[in-house]
Write a structure and sequence with these properties.
This protein is an alpha+beta fold. It has helices at 19-51, 99-112, 152-158, 176-188, 196-219; strands at 7-9, 15-17, 55-68, 71-83, 88-96, 115-116, 119-120, 123-124, 128-132, 135-141, 148-149, 166-170.
Length: 220
């Protein structure tokens, strides 16, 4: 069987492929290398997305300044919420020289201060009212199909959890950082239904002890 590829005889008497055949083979090898590299990038990106456990939301990004000896020092402040769309949620507030560094620092703080929320299916266990400095947030459980009735900060944070039905109202300050921390505090105070009787017993015991102490003082 004859070889159809053109051959060129060197001065030494050995054979070599023609220039056009060599160029075609090099072009094919380069295409294969590029396709292989592109597939590796796609696989790496898919693996990174699969490993990503938490999602983050930038609640607010503000530019802040501080007066120093040489003038004003401008920086950026980022408020970020991190959650796993189940029962974990955290909030972080940080500053940085640029927006990217501030957001990354806030994400690290949010993951470090993450809480586990006690839920009743797709809503909270009971009504809660929390205050953090000037912020005053009221949250109530809602029936299925109600949806999340809340303002911007509360809605953004609850979107990172599995809460689908809730009624909320902000009654105090409009500072986003304080509202975010008030929401975290309210979700931290959630007690499962099976533990409600323990709280009732503790409250009843405290009420029963209070009159005895007052009568003892009167007798003295």
């Amino acid at each position: 069987m004859e070889n159809n590829q053109p051959k060129v005889i060197n001065k030494a008497g050995t054979t070599k492929l023609a220039d056009d055949v060599v160029a075609a083979r090099e072009a094919k090898a380069e295409r294969d290398f590029r396709n292989r590299r592109r597939d590796n990038r796609r696989n790496r990106r898919a693996a990174d997305e699969g490993k990503k456990e938490f999602d983050s939301v930038n609640i607010s990004i503000n530019r802040v300044s501080r007066t120093v000896k040489g003038g004003r020092r401008m920086r950026f402040q980022a408020l970020v919420a991190v959650g796993n769309h189940k029962n974990k949620l955290g909030v972080g507030l940080a500053k940085g020289s640029d927006v990217t560094s501030a957001v990354q620092k806030a994400e690290r703080r949010a993951k470090k201060n993450m809480i586990v929320i006690n839920l009743d299916r797709d809503t909270i266990c009971h009504e809660v009212e929390t205050k953090v400095t000037g912020a005053h947030v009221l949250m109530k459980p809602a029936a299925p199909g109600t949806g999340v009735i809340a303002g911007g900060v509360v809605r953004s944070m609850l979107g990172l959890t599995s809460i689908k039905n809730l009624i909320s109202k902000s009654l105090g300050s409009t500072n986003k950082a304080n509202i975010a921390y008030a929401v975290i505090e309210g979700l931290r105070q959630q007690v499962p239904k099976q533990n409600w009787h323990k709280i009732d017993e503790a409250t009843t015991t405290q009420k029963n002890k209070a009159p005895k102490a007052s009568t003892a003082k009167e007798n003295k």
